[in-house]
Amino acid sequence: MQTVDGYEEFDSLFSGLGRQLQDMDFTEALQESANEFRSIHAGYFAREAGPSGTSWPEWMWKRRGAAWDHKTLDDTGRLKESLTGTGPDHIEEITPHSLEWGTSVPYSRNHQFGGTFVTTELLITRYGGRKPEGSFITIPPREHVGLRDSDVDAVVNRIADAVLEQFMPAAK
Which pTM was predicted? Predict the structure, then answer.
């Protein structure tokens, strides 16, 4: 058992812990987290509701050629695929100490936060009306990227478990 006598030894104790943490590899725990993020986001698209549980307002505008019966935020599959890890716009980079995860779909932000935008092509309303290119449309927020508190807690616990396993390998 190690004891610390007075404040003077705290520096060396924490310095040693910091060095040990720098040498640890969290790749496996971060990969498990990325897998979970893909599953969580697939659930959002299946339920058409984001992390807060708020259902997405129905789509009002569709591109010419898009199916009339497509799910909200899923007329081409590009956005969904970017968040479920199967599309070319999916971002996922894992190092021993970091996870970068998300989407590079440029219009994701427009749907996440909503707003008023200028159309770049002819759009058709759900009810048959038309909005020519250059028209203004308002898109309501449809939260589709993010984690619930319980998801964040699961990641923190996974990393904490990885720290303990690496500090005490015999405890596995």
Answer: 0.83
